[in-house]
Design goal:
By secondary structure, this protein is of the alpha+beta class. The chain has one domain. The chain has five helices and nine strands, in the order αβαβααβββββαββ. The strands form three sheets. The chain has a four-stranded antiparallel sheet, covered by helices on one side. Strands 1-8-9 form a three-stranded antiparallel sheet. β5 and β6 form a beta hairpin. The longest helix is centred in the N-terminal third of the chain and has 17 residues. It comes from Shewanella maritima. This is GDYXXLXY domain-containing protein. Pfam families: GDYXXLXY.
Length: 177
């Protein structure tokens, strides 16, 4: 059992080291759920764009009610193709189903897995955990940095501010809330 756990840790560490790095712009969340103790709730603009595209595709294919659309997509998974700009920020390009990878990627594109759960588009996580006492520091977060492996699996690694600067806690900020 211990060997299996250590292997899983090793695989995730390799994913973090060797994955392609890409920034996802955060979308606003309910301020009451933004900071809850030692984590912050996350939503991404890219997830909103995927949802809009899925709704548009469903509507054009004959389904008229959005509530029915999201019930039919309840456990859907797929890929979003993103263009990565010179700053490393992801921009929506297209979506693909898991079964139908149809287009080769261009030089500055990545294929990233997403899933639909409970009517929401999600990536690796919908929360960012941080050390107790650092909530004030992470209020400036505008981007989440993901490491994306060759399979398109994203792992959230860190948060960045509006100027694309890494948010890093240091000793003097601890307990300043």
């Amino acid at each position: 059992m211990l060997g299996l756990v250590n292997w899983q840790i090793y695989v995730k560490e390799q994913h973090l080291i060797s994955g392609d790095k890409v920034l996802f712009k955060l979308a606003p969340v309910d301020p009451r759920s933004l900071m809850q103790g030692d984590y912050m709730a996350l939503r991404f603009e890219l997830a909103n764009q995927i949802r809009d595209e899925l709704e548009e595709q469903s509507t054009t294919s004959g389904q008229e009610q959005r509530s029915l659309t999201w019930q039919s997509l309840a456990n859907q998974q797929g890929y979003v193709i993103v263009d990565v700009d010179t700053h490393g920020v992801a921009q929506f390009a297209a979506i693909e189903s898991m079964a139908e990878i149809s287009q080769p990627l261009k030089a500055q594109q990545l294929r990233v897995q997403y899933r639909v759960r409970d009517g929401r588009v999600k990536f690796a996580t919908n929360a960012f955990f941080f050390q107790e006492g650092h909530a004030k520091l992470y209020e400036a977060a505008q981007y989440g940095l993901f490491s994306v492996n060759a399979k398109g699996e994203p792992l959230l690694t860190s948060m960045y501010d509006e100027q694309l600067q890494l948010i890093e806690p240091n000793a003097r900020e601890v307990g300043s809330e």
